[in-house]
Amino acid sequence: MPAVDTEAFLRDLYELRAIGTFKTGVHRPTYSPQDMEARRWLMAKLTACGLEASIDGIGNVYGRHPGPGPHLLVGSHIESQNEAGWLDGALGVVAGIALARAGLPVDVCAFADEEGHFSLSLPGSRSMIGDLTEEAIDGARNRTDGTPLREALRAAGLEGLPRRQLEIGRYKGYYEMHIEQGTQLEEAGLRLGVVTGIVAIWQWRIVVEGQQDHAGGTTMAERKDAGLSAVRLLAAIDAEFPRLVGERTTWTTGRFRLEPDAPNIIPGRAEILFQFRDVSVAVLERLEAGLKSLVQEANRRERCKITLSSVSKAVPALCDPAMMQALSDAAEAIAPGAWQTMPSGAGHDAQVIARTMPASMLFVPSIGGISHHWSEDTKDEDLALGIQVLHGAAERFLAG
Amino acid sequence: MPAVDTEAFLRDLYELRAIGTFKTGVHRPTYSPQDMEARRWLMAKLTACGLEASIDGIGNVYGRHPGPGPHLLVGSHIESQNEAGWLDGALGVVAGIALARAGLPVDVCAFADEEGHFSLSLPGSRSMIGDLTEEAIDGARNRTDGTPLREALRAAGLEGLPRRQLEIGRYKGYYEMHIEQGTQLEEAGLRLGVVTGIVAIWQWRIVVEGQQDHAGGTTMAERKDAGLSAVRLLAAIDAEFPRLVGERTTWTTGRFRLEPDAPNIIPGRAEILFQFRDVSVAVLERLEAGLKSLVQEANRRERCKITLSSVSKAVPALCDPAMMQALSDAAEAIAPGAWQTMPSGAGHDAQVIARTMPASMLFVPSIGGISHHWSEDTKDEDLALGIQVLHGAAERFLAG
């Protein structure tokens, strides 16, 4: 078995970075021309490594190893957030290419729209395990511009293609290599993270309905200011959530929009996308109850009507002990003392795949913890170390 | 002297409502094709009433009475907010047409962009009194889409036209008729408001700079969440401002934008447009000091950098006593007991014109207090009563 070709791995990453370049990062929103160019690039790469490459009706790119098993599945996603980094997702897919090139019995998959440009959660990996209905696709829209998913699939030339599902018995397990998207490794002076579990994200939409009015003619006593009621609710969450959360819980208001969003007009409507993440279902349920109480109290106190609705509720995923052990052993062999175990605060396709087979993840450091921004980066030597450890772990786990 | 033709006045208003119709309102943003169509419509109307009509280099439409004075200036604006009401501005301009048609020695002006689609405050009326530099025009941009004002003027065919200035000695005073944009008249069961003064608007931009990061990988302790710091500042304003304000002060956050405004990303930047309004300079200065203190405290407490900058500071305007008396006398003669005096909470071109000549305003009720929304409306009989009272006041004031 040849060793993994680190230089070819880095060259692949840099080639992919050149597709949809934005400053030092990339702009490859799902199904955009740049994203489709990247998918075609990937199919050519997979073919060159001896895999049977195809793209399916949701945009999943799949490379099938033609030889005998037991097989590993290796992958991640290839689209990016808007004007974001070059490694998020791409790293795990290109790692799959590297293991295939090294001759391991590996299938590679780039799961479509992990980044959630459309109003579905992890549609590519869910489609692969048979957990995505045609009706869900019918109803999905682009979160930024409202384009129906069906229309985007048609424009990308994917309409009418069958959607592929994984042959579950085919795989011994799934490995996903990813950037950390935090500063824990960097701050601890470490170079590798063996992931113990993936937090679940519970997403919520909060809509505040008030009365749009002129900001001068309408006295303070007359107003139903949707923006103000929204600010008060978010301030209450900021004050109350610390009493409810677990040790590693995160909670975030990523989107806050006013209508009509004009300087001289009292906002008639506000829309908030709020989320929290944790590895413990008990904590998640406690936070849900707390959020509902705060909204209930806001509806008692405010003049505006506030509606809370669930956007998505994922299940936390624990990583497979044997796959983690293979990663830990390979890490200790190649970079003794330079690794740790840690949870993943971000969601990944691995949490979906983990519902059907053993799954595990390997993290490499993010410089400054930055991701989802074009300045996201990881040192070449950390990328190289990562692929060596992943290769070693894959060999160990397949042999185990 | 013929009486005012109420039917022709209402007919004009309905004709203008048909230009850029949106639901029951209009969409005529400044210099849009619909807006320019309305300006051409106005020039034809002014010409038909015997005025010498012209448009100038900022888009002001002006109709000059050819006969001897003393003259009155009557006007308002003709563009609308986006998808907004049919009467805001249009009413005062069409009232000018009606007085001219009735034979009064009236010049009519539609001041450009009172609605502030571009990053200037009341540019049309300020240009008319010589308070708008070429440099200010060079630097102005559309607040919604960033189009430079120069580009918009060129596209509208206004590039290179001279800008007109008022001949100050020509006028005995300025009358502006407008919808109330509040519910004070409606709630008191009254039909007319004689305006005592116009509040000044002090506009502020608040920029919060944090660090854009992934909402899962970045622990709460690591974050610099610009959206959260913005929410805390707005909550502090909500808590503290009631201690500082005057009896009729209003304060409003009309715009609140996050970047990148995506569910899974910690906002790296927030931008707020905040304003307060009062008739008292002492109160305005107290609020400015209070706002600066709150921003200073936020910069001490928060991890993000918060910058406060002044967008515009208008001067409160008091209405002319003799012009108010003429309005009050006409109102009492035509609709005894159905009127009151009141301040204007909204800014108007009258506050600019009042710097160079006596000025006064007449309000008619807004149904439900709604304005800056397509459902804005006023009963036809209130519009008709308004033009009769304005006509009577103009006759009285010219004769006085």
UniProtKB/TrEMBL annotation, chains A, B:
Cited SUPFAM superfamilies: Bacterial exopeptidase dimerisation domain, Zn-dependent exopeptidases
Domain Peptidase M20 dimerisation, residue spans: 201-300
Lineage top rank: taxon: Bacteria
Cofactor: Mn(2+)
A UniProt-annotated Pfam family: M20_dimer
CDD domains: M20_bAS (cd03884)
Keywords, ordered alphabetically: Hydrolase, Manganese, Metal-binding
Any one GO MF annotation of this record: hydrolase activity
Subunit-level organization: Homodimer.
Family: Belongs to the peptidase M20 family.
Cross-referenced NCBIfam families: hydantase
Protein name: Zn-dependent hydrolase
The organism of origin for this protein: Bosea massiliensis
